[in-house]
Amino acid sequence: MFRVCPTDRFRAVLAIVVLGGLTACGPAVLPGEGVIEDPTEDANRAMYDFNVAVDRALVRPVSQGYGTVVPEPVRNGVRNFSSNLDQPLMVVNDVLQLQFADAFQNTFRFLVNSTFGLAGLLDPATDMGIYAADTDFGETMHVWGVSEGGYVVLPILGPSTSRDTVGLIVDAAMNPTRLAFSTPESDYVTGTNVGDALDTRYRYTNEVDRLYYESVDGYSQARSLYLQNRRYELRGSAQAEYFDPYSDPYSDPYEDPYAN
Amino acid sequence: MQTKPGLTRRAFLGLAAALTASAALPARVWAMTVQAAQALVDRLVGELYDVINSGTGESRMYNDFEALLGRYADMPIIAQSVLGVDWRRASTAQRSAFIDAFAGYISRKYGSRFRDLIGGRIEVNGARAIRNFFEVTSTAHLQGEAPFQVVWLVSDGSGQPKVFNLIIEGINLRTTEAEEVGAMLDRNRGNLDAMIADLRNAS
Question: Which of A4-13, A174-183, A222-231, B170-179 comes out lowest in average pLDDT?
């Protein structure tokens, strides 16, 4: 029989009250389109250059080797396995955000892929149309009202913000699948994460190469792409603010662009 | 100055604005409908797939994309909004050179990405009116990837219904290319002609 002692019940009630309070004020206000807060730009640019150098010397060649040598079904298996292990962490964050539909979706996905998907090597959930509702602790903090903070470039990991950097650390510390494994299993998990990252670099070879090696100012391009996409993820179903070029403050109302 | 016969676009817009201002009308007079905006994107997506699946060579495909852009996208207004304040100081010749170079650059850059759509599909979900334009929402289904959202902004501000921005998972073409073109201009110390020459060679 399942017995709940009074202190457990008290804790559960307390947790719900606290989460209710945290989410009650609503999410942080997202910065407007094109608004960039980059107070540590010099340090960020130096880190960006370092990351590009590491990519040129190591990540790109290794990912090309990985993509060429390892057959696609194996690479997909590694990717599926690695991302399946992230699902419980997403469920934790969904609950912290009081997003119960997403929590259910991610839980169901984890159960389907862990069983029918042979411990996550296959991804039958996606074939069933159940996709991961991606989330992280950075988003949880956003839901609690913590604003974006400044743009940050992390070593190897790349673009982030000061809030999302804290989120990454919290996620790493509270990841249930991480906590479930001890060495050497946890090392194998790390191995699949690295494999997943290399696979991503390989699959987006053209896009990343264009950004790193062809863009005029790869740093500001990466910053813009990251912040636009991140804010879109956090915006959820809320309406985006669109710029209307037909009422452009820069254009001269007496100058017709179609007169050319 | 250029004179146009009949009702010019500017006169028409003035008339529309005057009508909107009159209290009798609840909102703006729509010259086009939500259905027309969605139908435009439906046709565009159809033609996009025709180009992708035609199996022609790369350079031929980029030319096809450029022709497609000319028909469906409002390149003058996109180019103008990408250049921002610098548009004001550009001469008429520089403006048309920029529009032309920018259209080629976009066709090459985004054309190489559209090739990823082979074997996938874009589903147009719906459209709605926002202020003076329309937002058409679609979902791209690519092999081995979770579906993602592609938004097309459509306006008839040019006199015809045309796409003036494309937003893929929150990443919008105008903002992204304004950064890139701005960086190109900086590298050329603000020299518009040199920037336009760079743009013609950029992929």
Answer: A4-13
Using DSSP, state whether B172 is helix, strand or coil.
strand
Give me the pLDDT at residue B26, please: 42
Task: List CB contacts of A146: < 8 A, sequence separation 6 or more.
Answer: A28, A163
Specify whether the CB–CB gap between A123 and A80 falls below 8 A: yes
Position B109 confidence tier, pLDDT thresholds 50, 70, 90:
confident
Mean of the pLDDT values across residues A108-119? 94
With CA atoms as reference, report the closest residue to A60 among A71, A48, A52, A50.
A52
Q: Are A52 and A169 in contact (CB under 8 A)?
A: no
Contact A235/B at CB under 8 A: yes
Q: Which amino acid, residue A219?
A: Y
Q: Are B157 and B74 in contact (CB under 8 A)?
A: yes
How many C-beta atoms surround the C-beta of residue A190 within 10 A?
13
B146/A126 touch (CB, cutoff 8 Å), yes or no = yes
Partner B, chain A 32-51, Cβ-Cβ below 8 Å: 33-34
Instruction: Point out the least confidently predicted range of A44-58, A128-142, B27-41, B172-186.
Output: B27-41
Structure tokens at B163: 């796409």
Query: What pLDDT score does B87 carry?
Result: 93
Angle formed at CA B68 by CA B67 and CA B72, multiple of 5 degrees: 125
Give how far Cα A105 sits from Cα of A27, A102, B78, Å: 22, 5, 40
Q: Which of B155, B170, B176 sits opposite A231 (nearest CB)?
A: B170
Q: How many independent structural domains does chain B possess? A: 1
Asked if the model's pLDDT at residue B8 lies above 80, the reply is no
Task: State which residues form the domain around B166.
Answer: 9-201
Please check whether residue B34 is in contact with residue B134, taking contact to mean a CB–CB distance below 8 angstroms.
yes
CB pair distance less than 8 Å for A126 and B10:
no
Q: For helices A100-115 and A87-96, give the axis angle rounded to 10 degrees.
A: 170
Q: CA A51 from chain center: how many Å?
A: 18
B3 within a domain of the structure (yes/no): no
Q: Do B176 and A257 touch (CB under 8 A)?
A: no
* Out of A210, A244, A250, closest to residue B88 by CB: A250
Using alpha carbons only, what angle is made at residue B150 by residues B145 and B155, rounded to the nearest 5 degrees?
170
For residue B1, tell me if it sits in a domain. Answer: no
Residue showing tokens 């207004």: B77
Closest C-alpha to A74, from A42, A133, A121, A113: A121
Q: What is the pLDDT of residue B23?
A: 41
pLDDT at residue A4, as a whole number: 55
Question: Nearest CA to CA, how far is A212 from chain B (Å)?
Answer: 13
Q: Which two tokens stand for residue A90?
A: 């997403």
Report the CATH number that the domain containing residue B46 is assigned in CATH: 3.10.450.710
